[in-house]
Design brief:
Elements lengths: L14 H13 L9 H12 L3 H8 L3 H7 L9 H11 L9 H7 L2 H11 L4 H7 L4 H8 L7 H10 L5
Helix pairs in contact: 3-4, 3-5, 8-9
């Protein structure tokens, strides 16, 4: 009786990738210094010594999509995908979120409504103040559309609120 043969495959980590990971971790020894979700993803991935492809496969996304997630210019991360990525990295989802994505995660509608009411503005007046329609404000508040990061920055800067 023979035992079945198991074939294990391991991703080869090239010296360049190891050097990149070491340099990044030396430059950023503490994750609390990182501000973007992209950098936090990279930090935790390097700490776990995981290749991008493995994280992408686990999260059910293409490798190119995940590579885009680690680009500092990327600003929006779907919560369902980020939840999967947080699981494989062994961290809480909130450990990965930057200020903008934390705003979305915490419920943009409730927060926007609170700011608008604090300013004693109607949806129409709030929209005019921020160069958007009343309908857009309604849709933000009921979370049927996502406020983009540039608009989020403008609204909170214009309202004098802390992000």
């Amino acid at each position: 009786m023979t035992t079945p043969l198991y074939v294990h495959s391991f991703s080869a980590v090239t010296p360049t990738r190891i050097a990149d990971a070491e340099n990044f971790c030396l430059q950023h020894p503490n994750v609390s210094d990182l501000r973007t979700t992209a950098d936090k993803l990279r930090y935790y991935r390097y700490k776990k010594s995981l290749p991008q492809r493995e994280i992408a496969d686990y999260a059910g996304i293409s490798r190119s999509t995940y590579i885009h997630f680690e680009d500092p210019k990327h600003d929006y991360y779907p919560i369902d995908i980020l939840t999967q990525i947080a699981q494989i990295l062994g961290v809480e989802i909130t450990d990965l979120l930057d200020e903008y994505n934390q705003f979305l995660y915490d419920g943009q509608g409730r927060q926007l409504r609170a700011v608008r009411k604090q300013l004693h503005l109607t949806q129409s007046a709030f929209g005019k103040l921020n160069n958007v329609s009343e309908n857009t404000v309604k849709r933000w508040e009921n979370e049927s559309i996502r406020m983009t990061k540039p608009l989020w920055l403008r609204v909170f800067a214009h309202c004098g609120q802390q992000k």
